[in-house]
UniProtKB/TrEMBL annotation:
The chain crosses the membrane at residues 28-46, 66-85, 97-118, 130-150, 162-183, 189-209, 221-242, 254-271, 292-317, 323-344, 356-375, 387-404, 513-531. InterPro entries: MFS (IPR011701), MFS_dom (IPR020846), MFS_trans_sf (IPR036259). The keyword Protein biosynthesis does not apply. This is MFS transporter. Keywords: Membrane, Transmembrane, Transmembrane helix, Transport. Coiled coil: none annotated. Residues 31-536 form the Major facilitator superfamily (MFS) profile domain. Pfam families: MFS_1. It comes from Bifidobacterium polysaccharolyticum. It is found in: Cell inner membrane. Gene3D superfamilies: MFS general substrate transporter like domains, Multidrug resistance protein D. It is a multi-pass membrane protein.
Length: 541
């Protein structure tokens, strides 16, 4: 790869505070490897947990709603703490916070693996997953700060694109590891993080030079009040979205939680505008390209984070496939993601964000629409050959991968007078909040249609709507074998007749989720049209 030749146009890239002197290419490559190992550990964990949701559910005796909370607790904790962790990395030094976050993530993994199977299982698992989320929130802004600090200015865009592409693509190792580890124990999917965390800590200690805080003298404190307000506001918004369909949208607790979220966001906005060093500088959002990149990341995360969970349950329950075969579906998605991420980064370097968003929207909408059509055809007799389903997953993954790293890179490039930790924290807050929002919206959507179809199919056998809802909630994250246990008291001939109806019902529910993802993907197109004409540096490779 030749050196990047930077050609400035109407306005230069904003310079972000806290740069360290660039180091030689060989040492920077070793540093990047250490950062990739650490951050990839968090990405791999997310796919392993999604793929192994049925084993965790049965091992701890949880419902589908409970397992969705376990998936969501990680993303919500990360989103709520990213703003504070971004400032911590600037205040304490990137290397120190990187080490602390890696250690905390490892401890959270250990706690997850040790959770006992009793009445406290769900609470303890949610707490342990939250520890993992906080550790991830500490690691990511610190990693970006380290990478940007030691990269030459004309190498930053390329290094960022490579970092985001590799760490995102490493997520595909989750299905492979998960299908292997689950044969022994679901606890091993968390214990596997311990050697990875130790390896990452060793590489960070030995390869990354000692750094110093990057904040100026007047900002040597953290706005804890602002961080608490925005964190609680996000939690108060996510909880009623996920629980509304269960307890009823008119329930006073749901209405009160929405109201509390609105008040907290308003309080945060007022506080932010009246303190000297707020947790999030709202003036950053005065830059329209930055705002559009953040909205694009939010939309992508609403789709990207939950897709692994739904693909896993679809393969295990609807298709009645093994964990290994189901892991291949997730692998197909990330195959498209990886190839497209590299292509999207190259297009972004040459032509900016506008064409990236436009192409990503068209590809993703096509892929998810095909997934919806194919996945929902199970009631018509889905053939054993799922080539078309697999191809549609590759296309859908390509659409999301095409814009994932460019939107993060563009956000960092566009931030005005902000440190690496701060702007990365904002970007990752949008990402994790979007993931939590996606699980909160799409999980109940799938369960709702699953229950409707169960009642429609089994109503003639005396299964009421409330019973259908209970069945959907119980087996909504399980395998076909787990679903059969719900009808163990029935004669075998009756079970053999009912199970195809159950599988077809879940296929119908998941097809609605994939269709919703396709509709959300179309939002990239108006965002592309709103994106201003290119006003950033051109990179010629």
């Amino acid at each position: 790869m030749q050196d990047c030749e930077v050609k400035r146009q109407e306005d230069p890239l904003p310079v972000i505070e806290g740069s360290q002197p660039p180091i030689n290419h060989k040492k920077l490559s070793l540093i990047m490897i250490g950062l990739i190992v650490a951050v990839s550990m968090t990405n791999i964990d997310s796919t392993i947990v999604s793929l192994s949701s049925q084993a965790v559910q049965s091992g701890l005796g949880l419902t589908a709603s409970g397992i969705q909370w376990i998936v969501n607790a990680y993303m919500l904790a990360a989103a709520a703490t990213f703003p504070i962790c971004g400032h911590l990395s600037d205040l304490a030094g990137y290397k120190r916070i990187m080490l602390s976050g890696t250690f905390l993530f490892g401890m959270g993994s250990l706690c997850c693996g040790l959770v006992p199977a009793n009445s406290l299982s769900l609470m303890l698992m949610i707490f342990s997953r939250a520890l993992q989320g906080i550790g991830s929130a500490m690691m990511f802004p610190a990693a970006i700060g380290i990478l940007f600090s030691y990269s030459a200015e004309n190498k930053r865009a390329g290094n960022m694109a490579l970092f985001f592409a590799i760490t995102g693509a490493m997520t595909c190792l989750g299905p492979i590891l998960g299908s292997w580890l689950i044969q022994y124990s679901w606890r091993d999917i968390f214990f596997i993080n311990l050697p990875l965390a130790l390896a990452a800590i060793a590489m960070i200690v030995t390869m990354i030079p000692k750094d110093s805080p990057t904040t100026e003298h007047g900002s040597q404190h953290i706005d804890w009040a602002g961080g608490l307000a925005v964190g609680l506001a996000m939690i108060a918004l996510i909880v009623p979205i996920q629980q509304g369909s269960t307890v009823g949208w008119s329930d006073w607790r749901i209405i009160a939680s929405f109201g509390a979220s609105l008040v907290l966001f308003l309080v945060f906005g007022f506080w932010d505008s009246h303190v000297d060093n707020p947790i999030i500088k709202l003036r950053i959002f005065r830059n329209p390209p930055f705002d559009i990149s953040q909205l694009a990341m939010l939309v992508a995360a609403v789709i990207f984070q939950p897709i692994m969970y739904f693909l896993s349950v679809y393969g295990l329950l609807a298709l009645n496939r093994s964990t290994l075969i189901t892991s291949l579906f997730i692998l197909y998605f990330f195959l498209g993601f990886l190839v497209s991420a590299l292509l999207g980064a190259q297009l972004f370097n040459r032509h900016g964000m506008k064409p990236v968003l436009l192409i990503a929207g068209l590809i993703a909408a096509t892929g998810f629409s095909l997934m919806s059509l194919t996945a929902g055809s199970l009631d018509k007799g889905l053939p054993s050959n799922t080539v078309w389903l697999s191809l549609s997953m590759v296309v859908a993954g390509a659409g999301i991968g095409f814009m994932f790293s460019p939107s993060s890179t563009d956000a960092v490039n566009r931030a005005i007078n902000a440190s690496y930790g701060e702007v990365t924290a904002i970007n990752q807050t949008f990402k994790n909040f979007g993931g939590a929002l996606g699980m909160a919206m799409l999980g109940p959507l799938c369960t709702h249609y699953f229950a409707l179809d169960i009642h429609k199919a089994l109503g003639k056998y005396g299964v009421s709507a409330s019973r259908a809802q209970a069945i959907a909630d119980t087996i909504g994250s399980g395998t076909s074998a787990g679903a059969q246990s719900q009808f163990a008291s029935m004669p075998r001939s009756m079970r053999n007749m009912i199970m195809p109806l159950i599988r077809a019902s879940y296929a119908s529910g998941s097809s609605k989720v994939f269709l919703a993802m396709g509709c959300l993907s179309l939002l990239f197109i108006p965002l592309a049209l709103l994106y201003p004409p290119k006003r950033q540096a051109n990179f010629r490779w």
